[in-house]
Amino acid sequence: MLDADLPLWQDVLRLVAAAIGGAVVGIERESRDKPAGLRTHMLVSVGAAAVMLLSHDLCREAIAIAESAGGEIRFDPLRTVAGVIGGIGFLGAGSIFKSQGDVEGLTTAATIWMAGAIGLTCGAGRWNIAVTTVVLALVILSLIGWAERSVLKTKPRSD
Questions:
Q1: Cβ distance 149 to 121 under 8 Å?
Q2: CA dist list (Å): 26 to 1, 66, 75, 108, 153
Q3: Average pLDDT for residues 110-139, to the nearest whole number?
Q4: Cβ(108)–Cβ(31) under 8 Å?
Q5: What membrane topology was assigned to this protein in its record (predicted)?
Q6: Burial of 105 (C-beta count, 10 Å sphere; 0-12/13-18/19+)
Q7: N- to C-terminal Cα distance for the chain?
Q8: 38: pLDDT confidence band, cut at 50, 70 and 90?
Q9: Which stretch of DSSP H or E encloses residue 97?
Q10: Residue 7 host element (H or E)
């Protein structure tokens, strides 16, 4: 069930939260001098949140129009999620390249995709999922990378 029309402050809160979530992941990439850094991750996350908010509004308006006309409407809000994730996949693919037999940029591509997921969850107001996703991203990027280098004595395969 869709909530009633969200007040402006709640839309702004969701967009700002998406920017912060994207920034947290983007700062880690920026600190490692990766091709997609702070601004890219923030923009992807905020864009995904904006699309989710727009989808919410359009679905709610379509339901209201159908109800006032005495009709019925069918919609699938998950198409919005699928479209955003698919589109971000293309953006992430641009950060992957092959150099001297090594594939590089996979982790950055994954973080771009994750920034989109963070934005979608913030746009949907699912704070528990958004915060958990950001925390897990930091753990994976920091601690797992450290474990690969220090404990396993291997270079992370794709950063």
A1: no
A2: 33, 42, 34, 9, 26
A3: 96
A4: no
A5: Multi-pass membrane protein
A6: buried
A7: 40
A8: very high
A9: strand 97-99
A10: none
Distance CA(146)–CA(81), nearest Å, equals 32
Q: List, in order, residues 6 or more apart from 84 with CB less than 8 Å away.
A: 48, 51, 52, 116, 119, 120
pLDDT of residue 158: 54
Could you tell me how many helices (H) and strands (E) the chain has, helices first? 6, 2
Those residues with Cβ within 8 angstroms of residue 81's Cβ, 6 or more apart along the chain or in another chain: 52, 120
Q: Give every CB contact of residue 3 below 8 A, 6+ residues apart in sequence.
A: 56, 125
pLDDT of residue 58 exceeding 80, the answer is yes
Residue 28 or 149, more confident:
28
Residues 71, 63: Cα–Cα separation, whole Å: 9
**pTM (2 d.p.):** 0.85
Listed residue (42, 37, 73, 51) closest to 124, CA to CA: 51
Phi, psi values for residue 5, rounded to 5°: -50, 125
